[in-house]
Amino acid sequence: MKQFPGTLVLASIFLSMGVGCISSRVDVTNDPAQKGRDPEATRQPSARYKDLKQHTFYRIGAVSDPEVDAKNRILYFASTHDTPDYNLYVKSFRRGAVIRLTSDSGNERSPRLSPDGRWLAYTSDRNKNWDIFLLDLTQPEATPKQLTQDASDELAPSWSPDGTEIYFTAFSHQSGKWKIWRYDLSSRQTIQVGTEIDGLFPRPSPEGHVIAFHRFRNRTPAWASLWTIRPNGTVPTEILTRDTWAAITPTWSPDGQNLAFSTVAKSLERRLHPIGADDIWTLRRDGTELQQITEHPASDWSPTWIRLPGEERIFFASDRSGTSNIWSIRVR
């Protein structure tokens, strides 16, 4: 397994074995009523759990990092079902055939579709460190464009709403922390977002006014919490933090009023064994109305919230079938 700088490793970054805390301290409750529950939270009505769909059905390897083209009902994902390393794949909602998009040595992860549907941004360690690449979906056989070139690790790309910039996370050897950057596709310049704040998995809001991300506390217990920041690096705002569990990988609802995210060590099972993601939750962008979406002993992680004709669904990775696959649940 490739070792990242500092205390985080590949498993914790990509959440296939998602570690949400770098502290060894775990608080366990013996109160059955507390089994991962938050006093401010509400569970989804049971009827909403009935529309759970499985979209991939692999029994070997791992599948993660769902991305959806809602207009064309196409699912992109990363998988090791065919190779030891992660490659990127695409499949239609309507057909079972799966097309492999990458075949380079190394891992390809975190596919993110551009707003116009032409480009797929992703991260790859084909050059022995992680860089951001672009794949032209109109010419998928062409060589992908490499956007970042330095010796740092760059991860988790995400597009600005107008498609002119790509946000990502990069490791700073100077501070020993992960920082948020944006790449301007026109000028080819890379600009840091907020020099005083560190963070992972940045996601711009649909209107582009703020960026959601998670960051680790700079004290123990070092659980990850959810934050937002403006694109110019001002007004860093913590919207969700807890002392006994982590909130990671936020993603926006289509209307920009809510966020979905994964928890770590929130349920009783994960407090006892805090290696791996937990369940999918949502909250308002102001940090209120915390609501549980999935409830299963298995791990659910890497959510993405999509509007489809007549419904909204949260797609996520889960190992509830025995191996990790892509699932979705209707939320509206």
Percent of residues in beta strands: 35-45%
Order of helices and strands: HEEEEEEEEEEEEEEEEEEEEHEEEEE
Oligomer: single chain
Number of strands: 25
Give me the number of helical elements.
2
- Termini distance? 39 Å
Strand order of the largest sheet: 1-22-21-20-19
Compute the CA-based radius of gyration: 18 Å
Q: Roughly what is the average pLDDT, rounded to an integer?
A: 84
Largest sheet: 5 strands, mixed
CATH class categorisation of the domain at 63-192: Mainly Beta
Shape: globular
Describe the structure.
The protein is 3% helix and 41% strand. By secondary structure, the chain is mostly beta strands. It has a 5-stranded mixed β-sheet with strand order 1-22-21-20-19, with no helix packed on it. Strands 2-25-24-23 form a 4-stranded antiparallel β-sheet, with no helix packed on it.
